[in-house]
Amino acid sequence: MPASIGMATSSSVSERANGGSMRNVDPVTFSVVWGGLISAAAEMGVTLARTAYSMAVREGSDFSTGVFDAEGNMVAQGDYSPGHLGSMAFAVNLMLRDFPREGLRPGDAIICNDPWIGSGHLPDVYMVSPVFHEQELIGFSVCIGHQIDMGGAGAGSTVIQGMIDNYQEGLRIPPTLCFRDGKPVVEVFRIIEANVRVPEVLGDLRAQFAANMTGAARIQDLARHYGSGVLKHCMREIIERSEAEMNAEIARLPEGTYTCEDYFDDAGPDTPPIKFQVAVIIKDGQITLDWEGTGPQVEAGMNSTLHYTYAYSIAAVKSVTLPRAPQNQGVIRTINVKAPPGCFLNPRRPAPCGGRNVVSHRIYETALGALSKAVP
Known about the structure:
With 376 residues, the chain is α+β, with helices and mostly antiparallel strands. The chain is 40% helix and 19% strand. The strands form two sheets. It has a seven-stranded antiparallel beta sheet with strand order 2-1-5-4-3-6-7, with helices on both faces. A hairpin with a 2-residue loop joins strand 9 and strand 10 (286-290). Helix 2 (27-51) runs antiparallel to helix 6 (200-226).
Protein backbone atom coordinates (compact mmCIF):
# COMPACT_ATOMS: atom_id res chain seq x y z
CA MET A 1 0.00 0.00 0.00
CA PRO A 2 1.31 3.47 -0.80
CA ALA A 3 2.36 5.82 1.93
CA SER A 4 1.13 9.38 1.90
CA ILE A 5 4.33 10.98 3.22
CA GLY A 6 8.02 10.28 3.05
CA MET A 7 11.46 11.71 2.31
CA ALA A 8 13.64 11.13 -0.71
CA THR A 9 16.80 9.15 -0.01
CA SER A 10 20.24 9.96 -1.36
CA SER A 11 19.80 7.36 -4.11
CA SER A 12 16.60 8.96 -5.34
CA VAL A 13 18.29 12.38 -5.27
CA SER A 14 21.10 11.06 -7.46
CA GLU A 15 18.53 9.59 -9.84
CA ARG A 16 16.90 12.99 -10.21
CA ALA A 17 20.30 14.57 -10.77
CA ASN A 18 20.78 12.18 -13.67
CA GLY A 19 17.71 13.48 -15.45
CA GLY A 20 15.32 11.02 -13.89
CA SER A 21 16.88 7.93 -15.46
CA MET A 22 17.19 5.01 -13.05
CA ARG A 23 17.58 1.30 -12.61
CA ASN A 24 15.92 0.92 -9.23
CA VAL A 25 13.72 3.21 -7.19
CA ASP A 26 14.04 3.02 -3.43
CA PRO A 27 10.92 1.92 -1.52
CA VAL A 28 10.33 5.30 0.08
CA THR A 29 10.35 7.15 -3.23
CA PHE A 30 8.12 4.52 -4.78
CA SER A 31 5.66 4.79 -1.91
CA VAL A 32 5.58 8.58 -2.05
CA VAL A 33 5.03 8.60 -5.83
CA TRP A 34 2.22 6.05 -5.54
CA GLY A 35 0.59 8.08 -2.78
CA GLY A 36 1.05 11.22 -4.86
CA LEU A 37 -0.75 9.72 -7.84
CA ILE A 38 -3.67 8.59 -5.68
CA SER A 39 -3.76 12.05 -4.09
CA ALA A 40 -3.81 13.62 -7.56
CA ALA A 41 -6.93 11.63 -8.44
CA ALA A 42 -8.53 12.58 -5.12
CA GLU A 43 -7.77 16.28 -5.60
CA MET A 44 -9.29 16.12 -9.07
CA GLY A 45 -12.50 14.99 -7.40
CA VAL A 46 -12.43 17.87 -4.93
CA THR A 47 -11.91 20.35 -7.78
CA LEU A 48 -14.75 18.87 -9.80
CA ALA A 49 -17.19 18.91 -6.89
CA ARG A 50 -16.33 22.50 -5.96
CA THR A 51 -16.51 23.93 -9.47
CA ALA A 52 -19.51 22.01 -10.84
CA TYR A 53 -22.84 23.72 -11.50
CA SER A 54 -25.26 20.80 -11.23
CA MET A 55 -26.53 19.22 -8.02
CA ALA A 56 -25.77 15.76 -9.44
CA VAL A 57 -22.05 16.48 -9.46
CA ARG A 58 -21.74 19.11 -6.74
CA GLU A 59 -23.86 17.37 -4.09
CA GLY A 60 -24.45 13.87 -5.47
CA SER A 61 -20.78 13.20 -6.31
CA ASP A 62 -21.85 11.46 -9.52
CA PHE A 63 -18.37 11.59 -11.04
CA SER A 64 -15.06 9.74 -10.96
CA THR A 65 -11.40 10.52 -11.60
CA GLY A 66 -8.27 8.67 -12.68
CA VAL A 67 -4.58 8.97 -13.55
CA PHE A 68 -3.12 7.09 -16.53
CA ASP A 69 0.40 6.55 -17.85
CA ALA A 70 1.56 7.66 -21.30
CA GLU A 71 0.51 4.32 -22.83
CA GLY A 72 -3.05 4.75 -21.61
CA ASN A 73 -2.85 2.33 -18.67
CA MET A 74 -4.79 3.23 -15.55
CA VAL A 75 -2.47 3.81 -12.59
CA ALA A 76 -4.65 5.38 -9.89
CA GLN A 77 -8.29 6.29 -9.22
CA GLY A 78 -10.32 8.34 -6.83
CA ASP A 79 -12.75 6.53 -4.54
CA TYR A 80 -15.94 7.06 -6.52
CA SER A 81 -18.45 5.06 -8.60
CA PRO A 82 -17.60 1.42 -9.48
CA GLY A 83 -19.56 1.77 -12.72
CA HIS A 84 -17.39 4.68 -13.81
CA LEU A 85 -14.08 3.38 -12.54
CA GLY A 86 -14.42 -0.16 -13.81
CA SER A 87 -15.16 1.02 -17.35
CA MET A 88 -12.63 3.89 -17.35
CA ALA A 89 -9.64 1.81 -18.48
CA PHE A 90 -11.54 0.53 -21.53
CA ALA A 91 -12.96 3.94 -22.43
CA VAL A 92 -9.62 5.74 -22.39
CA ASN A 93 -7.94 3.20 -24.65
CA LEU A 94 -10.78 3.35 -27.18
CA MET A 95 -10.85 7.16 -27.12
CA LEU A 96 -7.11 7.42 -27.72
CA ARG A 97 -7.37 5.26 -30.85
CA ASP A 98 -8.94 8.26 -32.58
CA PHE A 99 -6.33 10.73 -31.32
CA PRO A 100 -2.67 9.80 -31.96
CA ARG A 101 -0.51 10.93 -29.08
CA GLU A 102 1.80 12.96 -31.30
CA GLY A 103 -1.12 15.22 -32.22
CA LEU A 104 -2.02 16.10 -28.64
CA ARG A 105 -0.93 19.31 -26.91
CA PRO A 106 -0.97 20.71 -23.36
CA GLY A 107 -4.43 22.00 -22.50
CA ASP A 108 -6.26 19.55 -24.78
CA ALA A 109 -9.26 17.50 -23.71
CA ILE A 110 -11.12 14.73 -25.54
CA ILE A 111 -14.71 13.93 -24.59
CA CYS A 112 -16.95 10.95 -25.32
CA ASN A 113 -20.29 9.67 -24.05
CA ASP A 114 -20.86 6.75 -26.44
CA PRO A 115 -22.38 4.02 -24.22
CA TRP A 116 -20.45 1.28 -26.04
CA ILE A 117 -17.15 3.10 -25.43
CA GLY A 118 -17.77 4.52 -21.97
CA SER A 119 -19.84 3.55 -18.96
CA GLY A 120 -23.11 2.63 -20.60
CA HIS A 121 -25.36 5.67 -20.97
CA LEU A 122 -25.30 9.10 -22.59
CA PRO A 123 -25.25 11.32 -19.47
CA ASP A 124 -21.83 9.95 -18.45
CA VAL A 125 -19.25 12.06 -20.30
CA TYR A 126 -15.61 10.98 -20.15
CA MET A 127 -12.91 13.63 -20.52
CA VAL A 128 -9.25 12.73 -21.22
CA SER A 129 -6.38 15.26 -21.08
CA PRO A 130 -2.72 14.64 -21.92
CA VAL A 131 -0.06 15.58 -19.37
CA PHE A 132 3.34 16.85 -20.51
CA HIS A 133 6.64 17.50 -18.75
CA GLU A 134 9.29 19.36 -20.71
CA GLN A 135 7.45 18.53 -23.96
CA GLU A 136 7.34 14.81 -23.11
CA LEU A 137 4.00 13.05 -22.75
CA ILE A 138 4.07 11.49 -19.28
CA GLY A 139 0.45 10.51 -18.74
CA PHE A 140 -3.22 11.44 -18.85
CA SER A 141 -5.63 12.93 -16.35
CA VAL A 142 -9.15 11.56 -16.77
CA CYS A 143 -12.55 12.25 -15.27
CA ILE A 144 -16.14 11.31 -15.93
CA GLY A 145 -19.15 13.35 -14.90
CA HIS A 146 -22.85 12.55 -15.03
CA GLN A 147 -24.41 15.39 -17.02
CA ILE A 148 -27.96 16.09 -15.88
CA ASP A 149 -29.29 16.16 -19.45
CA MET A 150 -28.01 15.12 -22.87
CA GLY A 151 -31.18 15.79 -24.83
CA GLY A 152 -33.46 13.13 -26.26
CA ALA A 153 -37.09 12.28 -25.65
CA GLY A 154 -37.02 12.55 -21.87
CA ALA A 155 -35.55 15.11 -19.48
CA GLY A 156 -32.38 13.76 -17.91
CA SER A 157 -31.79 11.29 -20.77
CA THR A 158 -32.42 8.33 -18.44
CA VAL A 159 -36.00 7.36 -19.35
CA ILE A 160 -36.64 3.60 -19.30
CA GLN A 161 -40.13 2.92 -20.66
CA GLY A 162 -40.97 3.89 -24.22
CA MET A 163 -37.36 3.79 -25.41
CA ILE A 164 -36.82 1.40 -28.31
CA ASP A 165 -33.32 2.54 -29.31
CA ASN A 166 -30.42 4.73 -28.20
CA TYR A 167 -31.20 7.41 -30.80
CA GLN A 168 -34.21 8.45 -28.74
CA GLU A 169 -32.13 8.92 -25.62
CA GLY A 170 -30.09 11.97 -26.56
CA LEU A 171 -26.93 13.32 -28.14
CA ARG A 172 -24.24 10.67 -28.64
CA ILE A 173 -20.73 12.11 -28.87
CA PRO A 174 -17.92 9.96 -30.30
CA PRO A 175 -14.36 10.76 -29.17
CA THR A 176 -14.16 14.50 -29.91
CA LEU A 177 -11.69 17.27 -29.12
CA CYS A 178 -13.56 19.59 -26.74
CA PHE A 179 -10.70 21.79 -25.48
CA ARG A 180 -7.65 22.85 -27.49
CA ASP A 181 -4.68 24.61 -25.89
CA GLY A 182 -6.77 25.26 -22.79
CA LYS A 183 -9.70 26.85 -24.61
CA PRO A 184 -13.14 25.39 -25.41
CA VAL A 185 -13.69 24.28 -29.00
CA VAL A 186 -16.58 26.64 -29.71
CA GLU A 187 -18.21 24.54 -32.42
CA VAL A 188 -18.41 21.50 -30.13
CA PHE A 189 -19.88 23.52 -27.28
CA ARG A 190 -22.47 25.02 -29.63
CA ILE A 191 -23.61 21.57 -30.76
CA ILE A 192 -23.97 20.41 -27.16
CA GLU A 193 -25.75 23.62 -26.13
CA ALA A 194 -28.25 23.19 -28.97
CA ASN A 195 -29.18 19.68 -27.80
CA VAL A 196 -29.45 19.90 -24.00
CA ARG A 197 -32.19 21.39 -21.86
CA VAL A 198 -30.17 23.11 -19.13
CA PRO A 199 -27.06 25.34 -19.12
CA GLU A 200 -25.50 23.47 -16.19
CA VAL A 201 -24.21 20.91 -18.69
CA LEU A 202 -21.77 23.40 -20.20
CA GLY A 203 -20.68 24.53 -16.75
CA ASP A 204 -20.04 20.97 -15.66
CA LEU A 205 -17.94 20.32 -18.77
CA ARG A 206 -15.77 23.27 -17.78
CA ALA A 207 -15.60 21.88 -14.25
CA GLN A 208 -14.40 18.55 -15.65
CA PHE A 209 -11.68 20.38 -17.55
CA ALA A 210 -10.63 22.21 -14.38
CA ALA A 211 -10.39 18.86 -12.61
CA ASN A 212 -8.21 17.43 -15.38
CA MET A 213 -5.89 20.44 -15.25
CA THR A 214 -5.59 19.99 -11.48
CA GLY A 215 -4.60 16.37 -12.00
CA ALA A 216 -2.13 17.36 -14.71
CA ALA A 217 -0.47 19.87 -12.39
CA ARG A 218 0.00 17.28 -9.64
CA ILE A 219 1.45 14.71 -12.05
CA GLN A 220 3.83 17.38 -13.36
CA ASP A 221 4.88 18.17 -9.79
CA LEU A 222 5.96 14.56 -9.34
CA ALA A 223 7.87 14.61 -12.64
CA ARG A 224 9.67 17.82 -11.69
CA HIS A 225 10.60 16.53 -8.24
CA TYR A 226 11.67 12.99 -9.10
CA GLY A 227 12.28 13.11 -12.85
CA SER A 228 10.08 11.71 -15.59
CA GLY A 229 12.09 8.48 -15.73
CA VAL A 230 11.45 7.72 -12.07
CA LEU A 231 7.77 8.63 -12.44
CA LYS A 232 7.28 6.36 -15.44
CA HIS A 233 9.12 3.51 -13.73
CA CYS A 234 6.92 3.88 -10.65
CA MET A 235 3.79 3.85 -12.80
CA ARG A 236 4.84 0.58 -14.43
CA GLU A 237 5.80 -0.90 -11.07
CA ILE A 238 2.46 0.06 -9.51
CA ILE A 239 0.58 -1.78 -12.24
CA GLU A 240 2.87 -4.82 -12.13
CA ARG A 241 2.73 -5.13 -8.34
CA SER A 242 -1.05 -4.78 -8.31
CA GLU A 243 -1.38 -7.45 -10.98
CA ALA A 244 0.91 -9.82 -9.10
CA GLU A 245 -0.97 -9.27 -5.83
CA MET A 246 -4.33 -9.87 -7.49
CA ASN A 247 -3.06 -12.99 -9.26
CA ALA A 248 -1.85 -14.33 -5.92
CA GLU A 249 -5.29 -13.79 -4.38
CA ILE A 250 -7.05 -15.47 -7.32
CA ALA A 251 -4.66 -18.43 -7.05
CA ARG A 252 -5.85 -18.93 -3.46
CA LEU A 253 -9.46 -19.39 -4.57
CA PRO A 254 -10.64 -23.01 -4.92
CA GLU A 255 -10.80 -24.11 -8.54
CA GLY A 256 -14.20 -24.88 -9.98
CA THR A 257 -17.24 -23.46 -11.74
CA TYR A 258 -19.68 -21.61 -9.52
CA THR A 259 -23.04 -20.44 -10.83
CA CYS A 260 -25.85 -18.15 -9.79
CA GLU A 261 -29.01 -16.85 -11.40
CA ASP A 262 -31.34 -14.06 -10.43
CA TYR A 263 -34.15 -12.06 -12.01
CA PHE A 264 -35.16 -8.47 -12.52
CA ASP A 265 -38.93 -8.07 -12.27
CA ASP A 266 -39.55 -6.85 -15.82
CA ALA A 267 -38.80 -4.15 -18.40
CA GLY A 268 -42.23 -2.56 -18.09
CA PRO A 269 -45.92 -3.53 -18.13
CA ASP A 270 -46.73 -6.91 -19.70
CA THR A 271 -43.08 -7.89 -20.13
CA PRO A 272 -41.46 -11.03 -18.69
CA PRO A 273 -38.82 -11.08 -15.94
CA ILE A 274 -35.23 -10.52 -17.05
CA LYS A 275 -32.86 -13.36 -16.24
CA PHE A 276 -29.33 -12.80 -14.95
CA GLN A 277 -27.08 -15.85 -15.07
CA VAL A 278 -23.36 -16.06 -14.40
CA ALA A 279 -20.76 -18.80 -14.16
CA VAL A 280 -17.59 -17.92 -12.26
CA ILE A 281 -14.83 -20.16 -13.60
CA ILE A 282 -11.65 -20.42 -11.53
CA LYS A 283 -8.95 -22.51 -13.18
CA ASP A 284 -5.15 -22.45 -13.47
CA GLY A 285 -4.91 -19.24 -11.46
CA GLN A 286 -7.36 -17.36 -13.68
CA ILE A 287 -10.91 -16.17 -13.08
CA THR A 288 -13.64 -15.66 -15.67
CA LEU A 289 -17.19 -14.40 -15.19
CA ASP A 290 -19.31 -15.75 -18.05
CA TRP A 291 -22.81 -14.28 -18.32
CA GLU A 292 -24.06 -16.76 -20.91
CA GLY A 293 -27.67 -17.66 -20.20
CA THR A 294 -28.64 -14.08 -19.37
CA GLY A 295 -31.85 -12.89 -21.05
CA PRO A 296 -31.93 -10.98 -24.35
CA GLN A 297 -31.68 -7.21 -24.69
CA VAL A 298 -34.98 -5.40 -24.25
CA GLU A 299 -36.82 -2.47 -25.81
CA ALA A 300 -36.51 -0.38 -22.68
CA GLY A 301 -33.80 2.00 -21.55
CA MET A 302 -32.14 -0.36 -19.10
CA ASN A 303 -29.75 -2.59 -21.07
CA SER A 304 -26.20 -2.78 -19.70
CA THR A 305 -23.37 -2.41 -22.21
CA LEU A 306 -20.44 -4.77 -21.76
CA HIS A 307 -18.14 -2.20 -20.12
CA TYR A 308 -20.76 -1.50 -17.45
CA THR A 309 -21.26 -5.23 -16.91
CA TYR A 310 -17.49 -5.60 -16.70
CA ALA A 311 -17.27 -2.80 -14.11
CA TYR A 312 -19.63 -4.41 -11.61
CA SER A 313 -18.20 -7.86 -12.26
CA ILE A 314 -14.76 -6.48 -11.36
CA ALA A 315 -16.22 -4.85 -8.24
CA ALA A 316 -17.63 -8.19 -7.09
CA VAL A 317 -14.35 -10.06 -7.57
CA LYS A 318 -12.37 -7.33 -5.87
CA SER A 319 -14.78 -7.36 -2.93
CA VAL A 320 -13.82 -10.95 -2.08
CA THR A 321 -10.11 -10.73 -2.90
CA LEU A 322 -8.48 -7.31 -2.38
CA PRO A 323 -11.26 -5.01 -1.16
CA ARG A 324 -8.91 -2.38 0.29
CA ALA A 325 -6.24 -2.33 -2.41
CA PRO A 326 -6.19 0.50 -4.96
CA GLN A 327 -7.65 -0.42 -8.34
CA ASN A 328 -5.69 0.04 -11.55
CA GLN A 329 -4.85 -1.63 -14.86
CA GLY A 330 -3.00 -4.43 -13.10
CA VAL A 331 -6.09 -5.48 -11.16
CA ILE A 332 -8.37 -5.26 -14.19
CA ARG A 333 -6.05 -7.40 -16.35
CA THR A 334 -6.53 -10.37 -14.05
CA ILE A 335 -10.32 -10.59 -14.42
CA ASN A 336 -12.02 -11.89 -17.58
CA VAL A 337 -15.66 -11.08 -18.30
CA LYS A 338 -17.78 -12.48 -21.14
CA ALA A 339 -21.39 -11.98 -22.19
CA PRO A 340 -23.04 -13.13 -25.44
CA PRO A 341 -23.66 -10.30 -27.93
CA GLY A 342 -27.32 -9.34 -27.95
CA CYS A 343 -27.99 -10.30 -24.36
CA PHE A 344 -29.21 -7.88 -21.70
CA LEU A 345 -25.67 -7.43 -20.38
CA ASN A 346 -24.00 -6.98 -23.78
CA PRO A 347 -26.61 -5.41 -26.06
CA ARG A 348 -26.04 -4.66 -29.72
CA ARG A 349 -26.27 -1.11 -30.98
CA PRO A 350 -28.51 0.84 -30.86
CA ALA A 351 -30.18 -0.74 -27.81
CA PRO A 352 -31.57 1.81 -25.33
CA CYS A 353 -29.58 2.02 -22.10
CA GLY A 354 -30.25 5.41 -20.49
CA GLY A 355 -31.51 3.95 -17.21
CA ARG A 356 -29.00 1.13 -17.00
CA ASN A 357 -28.00 2.16 -13.46
CA VAL A 358 -31.14 0.45 -12.11
CA VAL A 359 -29.58 -2.96 -12.78
CA SER A 360 -26.09 -2.30 -11.42
CA HIS A 361 -26.86 -3.86 -8.03
CA ARG A 362 -28.31 -6.96 -9.71
CA ILE A 363 -25.11 -7.52 -11.70
CA TYR A 364 -23.03 -7.13 -8.56
CA GLU A 365 -25.26 -9.32 -6.39
CA THR A 366 -25.54 -12.10 -8.97
CA ALA A 367 -21.76 -12.18 -9.33
CA LEU A 368 -21.39 -12.24 -5.54
CA GLY A 369 -23.94 -15.05 -5.37
CA ALA A 370 -21.67 -17.22 -7.50
CA LEU A 371 -18.49 -16.09 -5.75
CA SER A 372 -19.99 -16.87 -2.34
CA LYS A 373 -19.91 -20.55 -3.25
CA ALA A 374 -16.15 -20.31 -3.71
CA VAL A 375 -15.55 -17.93 -0.81
CA PRO A 376 -18.32 -18.61 1.75
